[in-house]
Amino acid sequence: MFGAAIVSAGIVGNAAAFVLPIDYAAFGQYLYAGIFLLTFLANASVVVPVPYVPIVIRAADAAPSAALVIVAAAAGSMLGEAVSFFVGRAGKKIVDGSRVYRILHRVVDRPLLAGLFLFLLAAPLNPLFDIAGIAAGALGLRFEVFAISVFLGRLARFAVVVWLGLGLTRV
Q: How confident is residue 150, by pLDDT bands cut at 50, 70 and 90?
């Protein structure tokens, strides 16, 4: 019941954020910082659905540079996901030594493979990515590998989302 309420709130929130008549251009020079902060908070939050995707689309439409909106959204999103990474790092002792830990640790021992895996999980809209972030932290993945992989995945995600979203808003 609680899960259905959260999903419903997320759907309603995203639809409302897309259709509300907000003048994003009025934010001026603060628009990029606002997108960064919004995506950071949305991705740092695990339980509360924050309707950030339609806001990023609308902001990209109003901003002088949609590319800067995409970069700000990707950077904020990656730093928000870093919260899960550090939660995993703090809880490493809990999973240390388990069978699953040993299997996944073999992937983490290969930074290129781990980075590719995280990129592939970070690029699509994936509500379960927090689990990957926690696992990456708990398994001792270097933060640089995590940060670069997630940033590039989110850069790809927001580029596609903005491109598709601008196509929908201009129909």
A: very high
